[in-house]
Amino acid sequence: MEEKRPEWSSHISFIIATVGSAVGLGNIWRFPYIMGKNGGAIFLFTYLLLIAFICIIPLCCELGLGKIYKKDAINTFKTINPKYKWLGWLCIITVTLIPCFYFVVGGWILNYIWVFITGQLPDNFSLYFSSFSAQAFMPCFLTILFLIMTAIFPFRGINDGIEKANNLMMPLFAVMLFILAIFALTLPGAKEGLAFMFHPDFSRFDKTMVLTALGQALFTLSIGMGTILTYGSYMKENTKIVKSAYTLIICDTTIAILAGIMIFPIVFSFGVEPSAGAALAFISMPQMFSQFPLGVIFGLIFFALLFFASITSGISMMETTVAAFIDNFKLSRKKSTLLATVIIGLISIPASLSFGILSNFKIFDKTIFDLLDYSTSNIFLPFNTLLICLIAGWCIPNFWKKVFGESFFGGVFNILLKFIVPFVLICVLISGIY
Ligand code: TRP
């Protein structure tokens, strides 16, 4: 059954939804610890330069492709040239694999929300986290619960589901982030935390740091998977692409920096290593929240924050897959959502079990969870982005004029699109493979 292609009801809804997609665990959880591991301020400055001058290009490409062709990822590339259809499929495969590990983390978040609501905090979060995530039943159950909570919104459609969810959750998210950041600034470690974030240590500048910053920038903008393309395809005719892209980048970066402002003062006040890694959110942070009287409330806000960030991103991942199923299998929206839910559910269970009974099952020396995370972020993502830029730059006549405009800046962006960005992406890709 053909359904009429939906459209965002306003420009602001479009921006909120794309920000909802971009702002996720990548901002709140991944960005601070990667920054911690890579020297703080020097990483932040590199990241800002890269995001403003390099990542803007593929972001505009995806938005432009969505706006021009008004199709899902697969049909967009098929329309450009039937030979490129597989690139659309590759985007869809990537964006279907990401939730398979992302939603496992979503399940953990649900569990921590419960722990903080009931107030039954364990003494040692490190032991608690390793024993919880290794269980067979509960983490799988919560992963599926998170999946179902996410799927409800694409199931209900763009205007009634996705738009409403984002318009409600993103403002709540912003308010909570502000509250926590202000609270963090009142702590004794605030000065040290801010110095760590904004005082550059130039000795940490090296190739690996630059590549890590770029990988993070691509991941956080949800580029390379047809998601921004799909959201762009519901855009109104008069929406300006470059302006929307910069708005998105500014919002996403501001939120990542605010997340850092929230996390580092807490980290320094309690004497935790800022480079503690993935454990920061699920071990160090809750441990610190459990140590002061109002901590339970702040802990609850922290995990609610992670919940809103991850579910709005999750919705955009599922919508990309659902839109592709609708257009290519000629299924209704509801049936497409069910199909996507079943596929993601089936793969996410072994991903969840890879912290417990499947922890010794390794492919390329990685557990299923790590393999999904590593291959999508470090290989598929730069690879797809590279091809999207090459196709947009070299195979669509005058694409740059339509997207960037014919001004001087349009010309500069065209050079970036054709030569510089592909070169940089090839470097990222090579470093990701080795
Ligand atoms: N941008 C999201 C985040 O920061 C993660 C993400 C990566 C994503 N790729 C995506 C979200 C594709 C939606 C679609 O957490």
* Major sheet: none
Q: What name goes with the CATH superfamily?
A: Amino acid/polyamine transporter I
User: What is the highest CATH level, the class?
Assistant: Mainly Alpha
pLDDT averaged residue by residue:
91
Query: What is the chains' assembly state?
Result: single chain
Compute the separation of the termini in Å.
46 Å
Shape estimate: globular
**Cofactors and ligands present?**
tryptophan
In helices, the fraction of residues equals over 70%
How is the secondary structure organized here?
Layout: H1 11-22, H2 25-37, H3 41-69, H4 73-80, H5 85-118, H6 125-134, H7 137-156, H8 158-185, H9 190-198, H10 207-220, H11 227-232, H12 241-269, H13 279-289, H14 295-329, H15 333-353, H16 368-395, H17 399-404, H18 408-433
Helix pairs in contact: 1-8, 1-12, 1-14, 2-10, 2-12, 2-14, 3-10, 3-12, 3-16, 3-18, 4-5, 5-7, 5-14, 5-15, 5-16, 6-13, 7-8, 7-14, 7-15, 8-12, 8-14, 9-12, 13-14, 14-15, 15-16, 16-18
The site of tryptophan has 16 residues, from helix 1, helix 2, helix 5, helix 10 and helix 14.
